[in-house]
């Protein structure tokens, strides 16, 4: 499946508010850290992404079908406040695990062995055999420009069973939300795929809560679950309308949806490390290159990433200069099934340009415009 490891999440920086000065410590210090992050909103799954009936049939048993239905606006202020103050509540539905490790045999360090969330780990060999194709000899990968052996309990992305690749793509983008390049499958994702294959319940809420807790203790990682948290915000506002005010602004999501796999040219350098190339001569409609959020080698190579023939609207708007016209049209040569998405993105682009022109000579981004608006409201 096509890898959505582009940098479109960085566009979320334009709408993240500065609200830390409104709170007292220690929440203020926590918010100051969060305000510097980007938000991983989550990716809408298009109906033509793959055989969604098959994916849904597996997701329903482990209660992951919510990942196929997110298509929300984003409320960044609520997301920041939620991250700064939330607490994990007990839920006894399904297996519980959280780990940032790669080796599947290291899941033992991320599974609660007693208490309310106690979970029994199936044999590691069963997990591996359920999701990975049989290996033919020693498998190797590139690390720091050196070819090394892949260990027995490590699973590369290219080794996932073909029928499970759509599930792996959706779970990675909407549950792990790590971003960046990837050539392997983290242990927790292997565990989730195992539960999908065996139609057993997995405690998604536990994993998400633990991941949010872990992310806030790191310095650079994305804030995950933007659209899912906004769905929670909408529910809260519907129950308590008085909580809805002008401070909680909703924004259209900016991350590229998961669409059907486009025709790709075969790569002769598969498995080899690619050098950095200048993009100055590339078309403005090329897909953005992948980014490294972490220096950790475990997220170094992205063997599934390719350049698609359909233009990227995010790369398109990022390539614009002050000399462009005010009104844009859909880029040429787009796939027919993607036309509704690009039409909507074109409307967003036109609105962004309109805001830029209105603030020319003063504010140059939507984020700065919102901060100026907030200061005026405080006066």
Describe the fold and architecture.
- This protein has 379 residues and is mostly helical.
- The chain has a domain at 309-379.
- It has 11 helices and 2 strands, in the order ααααββααααααα.
- It has a two-stranded antiparallel ribbon.
- The longest helix has 20 residues, at 339-358.
- Residues 262-313 are annotated as: Disordered.
- Residues 278-291 have a biased composition (Low complexity).
- Residues 265-277 have a biased composition (Basic residues).
What distinguishing features does this structure have?
mainly alpha, single chain, about 375 residues, 2 strands
Quickly give the structural class: mainly alpha
The termini sit apart by 51 Å
Q: Give the uncertain stretches in residue-range form.
A: 262-326, 359-367
Number of helices: 11
Topology of helices and strands:
Blueprint: H1 27-34, H2 52-62, H3 76-85, H4 124-131, E1 140-143, E2 146-149, H5 165-176, H6 187-197, H7 204-216, H8 226-239, H9 313-318, H10 339-358, H11 366-378
Biased composition (Low complexity): 278-291
Region (Disordered): 262-313
Biased composition (Basic residues): 265-277
